[in-house]
Amino acid sequence: MNSVTIIPITHIGFSAAIAKREKVQMETGRLKWRYYVYSLTETQGLIAPVWVLLLQARGLSYTDIGVLGALYWAVLVLAEIPTGYLGDRLGRRQSLLVAAVVTALGIGGLALAQTLLPLALALATWAVGITFRSGTADAWLYSALAQAGASETYTDVRGRGRALKLAATAVTAVVGGVLYSRLIIAPFVLTAGLLAINAVIVLSFPTISDTADQSQSESWRLAMTREDLKHLFDQPGVRGFVGYTVLLFGLVEVARTFIQPIVVGSQVGLPVAAVGGLYASFNLVAAGASATTGRIERTFGRRRWFLVAPFLLAGSFMLLPVSPVLAVPSFIGMEAIWQVSKTFQSSVVNERTPDRRRATILSVVSMAGGVAAISFRAIGGVLADLRGPLLMLAVLAFVFAVGAGALLTVTPEVVFRPAETDTSE
């Protein structure tokens, strides 16, 4: 008679647990690598150091540049909600695919535009493409990780993905500055081609199950969005925290708009070919900061970060009129500070938002930042023409410091603590 081996039930259960954990790790690993490759090809580093110089080369004034910047953000604001709904309703992967294609068309259009109106149209197209990605990319990543049972890795994965994008941006920025000095349109045409590759990468993304009930009426969906927004902003400290990060974004955006005229102009005096290298240093430092966001959160804490880092940036901007030499280190520090702050902002909102409207809610927050960018850029262009870009940055940094300080005084500490994720349907 053959003997029968009896396997304890506990052993079977233990083996099943190991197999399940290994499956989760494999799925998470594939998600991470696809997201990392996506982040690499998403870069627009070739045009980052020269797009404002292109506008100047077409004969635009500081005021014109500020108005175009405000128009860019006005389009972002107007398109945020519709594209956020597309991300939730039609599929986040499809939304990211449209983002790559439309952004490529807008950037390619900049290469061909010669006057104010065509330049405005190209910038508007570029902005529409960006809105298809804004909020949706973060929502896709968070939901994909949650579906794989690894939502707790979101901060690290997003931070590393941003670091890869910033590193790619640093490398391509060097190339972009050199290319621009030889052929103005070259960086823009090549960026459009890179975004076409990005679209192919998106096609390899897995489809994420949508927890929203697509059979419901539009009025029901709008009512649920309002309910989820109310749920988010009624939580202690969220209003003040979002307001703070919105002001910070406005300051960062106006500074980004005038980096190139400042460093190429008489204030710093860099040659155009060297601007790409300067932008590379911006992005390398920002990449390092983004990659360590998780460690900063664990060791330094979100609240201490927002009490110190953005105010140091504002202080450095306020010193620019009397010490222009601070411009380069200030801009380097700005990118690092914003990358970490943006990830913290995304984490706070994600943790307090139901999955059914996560992309839409993130788009609303991004829209609020766009409103600040419109105001800061429009006012910044006029002030730069009147008093110069350095004094303009000093004035707007003071405005930020006053507003952010007031918001922090009424924001309870609890908002800076990680909250339990709400994935209710």
From TrEMBL:
GO terms for cellular component: membrane. It is a multi-pass membrane protein. PROSITE patterns: MFS. GO terms for molecular function: transmembrane transporter activity. It is found in: Membrane. Residues 1-415 form the Major facilitator superfamily (MFS) profile domain. Keywords: Membrane, Transmembrane, Transmembrane helix. It comes from the Archaea. InterPro entries: MFS (IPR011701), MFS_DHA3_Transporter (IPR053160), MFS_dom (IPR020846), MFS_trans_sf (IPR036259), Tet-R_TetA/multi-R_MdtG-like (IPR001958). The chain crosses the membrane at residues 35-54, 60-83, 95-113, 186-205, 241-259, 271-293, 305-332, 359-378, 390-410. This is Nitrate/nitrite transporter NarK. It comes from Haloarchaeobius iranensis.
